[in-house]
Amino acid sequence: MNLELSPSELQFRDEVRAFLKAELPKRLSDKVRDLKRLTKADYEEWHSILNRRGWLAVSWPAEWGGTGWSVIQRYIFEVEAAAAHAPRVVAFGVSMFAAVVLRYGTQAQKERWLPRILDGSDWWCQGFSEPGAGSDLAGLRTTAVRDGDDYIVNGQKTWTTFGHFANKIFCLVRTDPAAKKQEGISFLAIDMDTPGVELRPIILLDGEHEVNEVFFTDVRVPADNLVGEENAGWTYAKYLLAHERTGTALIGESTAALARLKAIVATETKAGKPLSQDPLFAARLARVEIELANLTTTNLRMLIRSDSSAASMADSAMLKIRGTEVRQQITALVREAAGPYAAPFRLDALEEGFNGEPVGPDYAAAAMPDYLNHRKLTIYAGSNEVQREIIASAALELPRR
Amino acid sequence: MNLELSPSELQFRDEVRAFLKAELPKRLSDKVRDLKRLTKADYEEWHSILNRRGWLAVSWPAEWGGTGWSVIQRYIFEVEAAAAHAPRVVAFGVSMFAAVVLRYGTQAQKERWLPRILDGSDWWCQGFSEPGAGSDLAGLRTTAVRDGDDYIVNGQKTWTTFGHFANKIFCLVRTDPAAKKQEGISFLAIDMDTPGVELRPIILLDGEHEVNEVFFTDVRVPADNLVGEENAGWTYAKYLLAHERTGTALIGESTAALARLKAIVATETKAGKPLSQDPLFAARLARVEIELANLTTTNLRMLIRSDSSAASMADSAMLKIRGTEVRQQITALVREAAGPYAAPFRLDALEEGFNGEPVGPDYAAAAMPDYLNHRKLTIYAGSNEVQREIIASAALELPRR
Amino acid sequence: MNFDLSEEQRLLADSLGGYLGKRYDRDAGDRTHWSALAELGVIGAFFDPTRGGFGGSAFDVAVVFEQIGRAVAIEPFLGTLMAGTAMGDDVPEALVTGTELFAFAHQEAALRHDPDTVLTTAVPDGAGWRLTGHKGPVRGIEQADHIVVTSIGPTGLASFLVDPASEGVSIRGYPMIDGGRGGELVLDNTPARLVGPKDGASAIARTLMIGTVALCWEAVGIMDHLRDATLDYMRIRTQFGRAIGSFQVLQHRMADLAIDIEQARSAAINAAAAIDAGRRDAARVVSAAKYTIGTTGTRVAEESIQIHGGIAMTWEFPSSLHAKRLIQIGQEHGDADHHLARFVALAAA
Amino acid sequence: MNFDLSEEQRLLADSLGGYLGKRYDRDAGDRTHWSALAELGVIGAFFDPTRGGFGGSAFDVAVVFEQIGRAVAIEPFLGTLMAGTAMGDDVPEALVTGTELFAFAHQEAALRHDPDTVLTTAVPDGAGWRLTGHKGPVRGIEQADHIVVTSIGPTGLASFLVDPASEGVSIRGYPMIDGGRGGELVLDNTPARLVGPKDGASAIARTLMIGTVALCWEAVGIMDHLRDATLDYMRIRTQFGRAIGSFQVLQHRMADLAIDIEQARSAAINAAAAIDAGRRDAARVVSAAKYTIGTTGTRVAEESIQIHGGIAMTWEFPSSLHAKRLIQIGQEHGDADHHLARFVALAAA
After folding, report:
1. Is A230 known to be catalytic?
2. Which residues of B are catalytic?
């Protein structure tokens, strides 16, 4: 056993670092570092830079323009990109939708959709959750009724992240209302500009417009937008959720956020000394740092075993739970560091090019919004409660009843 | 609102203090303070002293020799007695069995049993739990079959505390095997010296003989040992468990144990300073101290409202959960204070009159056994999981399904 | 020993609760609600009869702030309480009647984690004083007709009254995450009048103590609201074909939370009782309460968001302000770490 | 990066696990098991070939102690590892072959919370030394043929070899709560021989580090056992007409515990890897691991007792020794508080 990178992995890391140094625009990394709000154009710019280098589709096979990287390479890239304050790669098209199309789509669908993801022609969003179907995703009620060569879609999706940036949405829809819950669901791709699709913004508790409701009223969708078989969509959704684990534990993001937190509390003071030297704060900081160091290794162990064996749902669930907990704890410590200055609510200060005088320390404006926004981590993508159910049945093999 | 004792309560407290100072034998209080193991004779001695003063039966009506105290008086007595290191009053006879007899027993039963509890002629123990019925108490299987003027009892009880000191046992037995779980249970008093009753010790993980198994083989019990109505025993058991709340939160015991812990860590050192000044240990000690101070008030609030309204099962459950958690945390901090010297396992040092040289600090021999022994608190008398169920249904009114 | 409210306290709680629940509009933006609340006796409850009020005990303050918490009302209750307390016998009638608004400027911009320390200086200037310093965030500073500012003068800490229109006063306002507005107050050789008792430092310590107890009770009111709102939601929201409140795991978490909330109320009772009884360890008991409120409050807010799920992540979520306010209370007037360390330090003293 | 055991390590783990699981009897009371274990290569794994072994990496030690943990074996593994490591090139063949028993006496009776500090003194006496001090508790002290004692000499900390039969040695033995025996060692001007590398302090620091990592891996083995035993019990024990393992609340608690145990294993991997890679921050990584083991271990032990219920309270409970040993490991070689503070202090360095 050893945790050292091999010479070839070290070389790869240096390559990644050199790329980031040369190609990541300072304007973007400054915004990410300072937790400013990114625009659609910001994400597109970064996607396009990655695509030029051939590094956008880290989990696709090389024949479709993917990197063909090992999980360790993907992990190295994730950590280095986060450390350099690169914008996140928005996952909905390049990792989520593409994973399902690559595995279950027809050749024609691959040719039709995959290149447009890479070159930025399509921005995909996800239509899974519904107002009545959150943790109980299979309880969804949006229907798609076959009518000649089309489906007619009616219903409502919610929590659609970046729906206002997207021109395409992949949805779970109910195609057999008589079947048992999980068995009547299909996986359908829909153009957002089809008549009858309506998008309404949801403002989050931190004041940000990030997610949306999407309404479907008699929306006519060509049947060749169906991915895989009719009524088999639940299988594809499960595949999608378990498929992409490199990022589940949020190691890159948390590592970068922890470094930022440490810089903050080295200058923030209490009783004339750095807050980082207050014994109780230092202990809480250390606990998170240790938990993250442990999780980094847990993540690698699980990634490597997934490389050589079937991906385990329970491993993903463990990484999701602890990864989101650690990430949230870091945002909470930043909020605490800001103390009374977490209260002023200055959305303008989170925009690029804000020139006003900061209120309190410069990190303070983002502290509370960032903390509040990250409460979503333990709720979405299968709440942590649902993840514990998965662990109990899949790993611990505890009886249902 | 105020938390001050009234003049009459203050006078009562002084009376209690004076009594304890005059009447509590130093030999006993030394043993209790040093966590030595008490013998049957020790308990009997203290019961008899209390009885002489008329203070043994704190919850009985005066006509049967009880004190007639208010809940505040009972609370004051509990705290003062614990602070003075008085032995606990063993509850099985004087508070548990007596409560049921006083409420549901016949006049003849009261006359037959109550005086003998006060004068020490009878030592009662409890036969509720069975190997297959722990948290699920109503799952008990010991049977009592009517045969003329007798019942014939067969089955097994377990976790019978001080069964080896007792000459009587009150049992829950199944008298109607056809009825629904809770509905076929009766409350039966049994002489331990009846043929067919057999007692076997259980040694606890700290090496102590405190609990027992009790086996019943064709034990013939006179039918007038039945308390209340046949098949109504579950009601009496619930009454018994909810009835006596003054001590549920263990305030007296925990307050005395916390004082002892503070004395220990004022002398135990780390890096040349008292352990009590180590910032992390001090913080953990402070958290327990604050929790206990809060609980003291929670306890009083709930006691006073139970005085004026029907006792709430949920209040009892809350006091049981938090009280046992606090008590356990104190034992854990003592164990941690002993550090490496919690490891030597010296049962001899827990006996009265041990004259050997101590190993490590003088409190160390009891530290680990006391910690281990107190793990029972969250398991017995309705595990804390069962208590949370009670809160969820009784106080939070959450749906069953 | 007595855990009942007095008849007057119960009446005040009822009428205040009724007003805030039914007639109050947090977005009114003028002084109509403040006048109405003053008439209900909210401000009068903060002060004893010698100062124009009819209350003045810590439990009188508690009764008011518990109701404020339930409604997350944003009127200048805390500034009024603290400004008035700091001024002692100098408290003006216009404060007690609610006809003029007061802010209390104590927290310093540079000392975010030292709630008891002040750098602002006061130098004598003829019959008056001149103040220089930077206070922030100060709640209600833009609306205030008068500002009570804590400063270090030649004889130590004291309170000073500042007219916001004076020279050398600059105020920069902003909205607050938990509702209402606050601002930065910069004083540059600003004229001021010394107010309050001769021993300014003890008066300010008392003021901070009663202000902290007020925050604790505000938090108690918020926690009760969040518990009840979460339980209500658990009874109606269904997932997997059943009410989420029927899931054992959520039941047990809510049971533990309910105990924590009872304990937090007890902590707040202890603090108010210690002040009213003039106990020598009152400061330590207040720190115990603020520590308890800080840790429990954050847990209550986070659990109520988690159990509500996605809906709690939205701006529209009816309890959103409760959750934000509760979290922020945890890190004002010293956070849980601060008060835990203070509890330890005061034991040694 | 590689998380696989070597072929040799896997074989050793298998044969050791098999032996401890099937043939080992903790109450044998003689040296037959020790000889057999030595023949399996258990001691050889602790040392590199220059010292008569075939291993010597931290992961070789880890493999052995994980199996020891599963079986809560009480043979003098740790004393042998630490005594041998402290002696460096002086390690005697009789130690590596298991023909003679060694104890490592470092922890001092008066310094229960300072695992790195020593008061025992060594003064020169002709070609040898004389030691005076009080060590305790020392595991396996009664059985030891030789004792390696850490002491402060004129040039600082160093290791000394003591013959238990020498003058001025007094030993008081006792059973340990977690199995096996230990004792107090009092040295009064006892003759001794200096052993180990010239820089005794670094050798001892290395010894404490590897000993701590060994404890961490022992804990990992115990935790795996307790998790599995608890899960097994949850599948068969019924209450309220169903397996207790079907109760959601216990399922979620076990899920969290399972994550904690994965994290504890990762912490132990990090520590061993840091030592083997000669990382400069190895001591800090070891403290992170011991902190993790300390907190998680106690939780695992307490939860396994709670979920087993009454049966876990008995002397006969098959996992009782596992639980006790795990809790005690948490407070040996420095408890969780100690290592958390050390982790913080070493960051600053």
Report:
1. no
2. 244
